[in-house]
Amino acid sequence: xxxxxxxxxxxxxxxxxxxxxxxxxxxxxxxxxxxxxxxxxxxxxxxxxxxxxxxxxxxxxxxxxxxxxxxxxxxxxxxxxxxxxxxxxxxxxxxxxxxxxxxxxxxxxxxxxxxxxxxxxxxxxxxxxxxxxxxxxxxxxxxxxxxxxxxxxxxxxxxxxxxxxxxxxxxxxxxxxxxxxxxxxxxxxxxxxxxxxxxxxxxxxxxxxxxxxxxxxxxxxxxxxxxxxxxxxxxxxxxxxxxxxxxxxxxxxxxxxxxxxxxxxxxxxxxxxxxxxxxxxxxxxxxxxxxxxxxxxxxxxxxxxxxxxxxxxxxxxxxxxxxxxxxxxxxxxxxxxxxxxxxxxxxxxxxxxxxxxxxxxxxxxxxxxxxxxxxxxxxxxxxxxxxxxxxxxxxxxxxxxxxxxxxxxxxxxxxxxxxxxxxxxxxxxxxxxxxxxxxxxxxxxxxxxxxxxxxxxxxxxxxxxxxxxxxxxx
Length: 474
Ligand SMILES: Cc1cc2nc3c(=O)[nH]c(=O)nc-3n(C[C@H](O)[C@H](O)[C@H](O)COP(=O)(O)OP(=O)(O)OC[C@H]3O[C@@H](n4cnc5c(N)ncnc54)[C@H](O)[C@@H]3O)c2cc1C
Known about the structure:
Shape: globular
Number of helices: 16
Distance between the termini: 22 Å
Helix content: 25-40%
Oligomer: single chain
Strand content: 15-25%
Largest sheet: 7 strands, antiparallel
Number of domains: 4
Number of strands: 18
Bound molecules: flavin-adenine dinucleotide
Strand order of the largest sheet: 15-12-14-13-17-18-16
CATH architecture of the largest domain: 2-Layer Sandwich
CATH class of the largest domain: Alpha Beta
């Protein structure tokens, strides 16, 4: 089917105003914030494949109609909502279609008796959190991209927020959902506190990166909003190994603060300047909930910290982090690093306690050795569990061989992180997802369970129209 027929067919179904063909709209809907694409874009290059159009349905029925048409003609389709992906996950194929849920937004119902809220897929997370706060609740979900991301994308990427140790990731917050399958069939997974009725079908969509269906509505948990009873404190500590050991003790003893962070000395210098002694790592803790609980958590963490060689820094570093934690979202479209001839980005992995320190150490040791143009490498742990934690690497490098070298050099950095992680049994993506740049490592990540993913795909999307290139290698 040629481009003209695709556009006319979709316009006939949904109305002309639902199908956007302006190059600027297509370009904006096709690009995310992965570091090398940012650099290319600021450099005046625009190498992202060109989609035929952007379809903007207003409701589930229109999503269903659009997908039935796209499936019938086998047309490559990329779902999107907020466009804050950092993994090339919303880049379309040449001539493909972008199915954009942004106009399907708003709160459908607030159920205070059952403590849940139902929203449409394009609801901005920041809008939802403000709405809940006004009613005395919080959603408990605070990814750094809170000002950018929308609910559909958060579910589809298995997102996690900065208060995850208390509230969990989006997988712990999603109660039920409505989605449209590739052929246009609408399905709903009902809201239940827990049930024993077979595999949990919500997980077909959580983290599916748009390749198994289009999420149209979601019901999420809500919690009392109690910022006034927060407890917070921070400590300087020498070395990441000591910091990781301290966090492990907090987690395995049973304390559940909302925020648990450990930044290495390189990040500390950038983030806190003189507020933290030079050469130290810093631990940040924040507990929230009813006052007796936060007080007990605070006391418990203080006792554990007292057994380590720490320097108590009080609550100031946590307060300063709280105030600035999402600022980067407002600078994403400024060429801050491009002006310095650099690509800067992040990459997150996870591993059990027995392996995480070694992975961190191996990456920090190997990258400067193998990349003469590396400018910065640092990292932090920001999401901890009883069994282990994540490391979120932050890096930058000089683009010293022209814009064409930005992507291969970027992939060199990522390759080191993926190899060192897989070698030690870690997982290659903690919360950003595979997107289209980590796909080649997915078979090794999943091992013998990888064929299951392919079987799911061929069953739910037999013509393979939905988001080709994420998670599956062909
Ligand atoms: C500055 C910054 C900070 C970030 N911080 C965090 C963080 O703290 N935690 C975190 O988890 N992530 C973070 N991210 C990554 C990103 O915000 C998340 O991946 C987010 O979940 C994407 O949501 P979105 O609405 O922007 O999705 P999009 O970018 O629109 O899409 C992302 C993926 O979801 C799929 N998708 C989107 N909508 C739907 C739908 N309705 N149905 C089916 N599939 C769909 C797309 O096909 C794509 O694969 C950050 C990104 C930036 C730029």
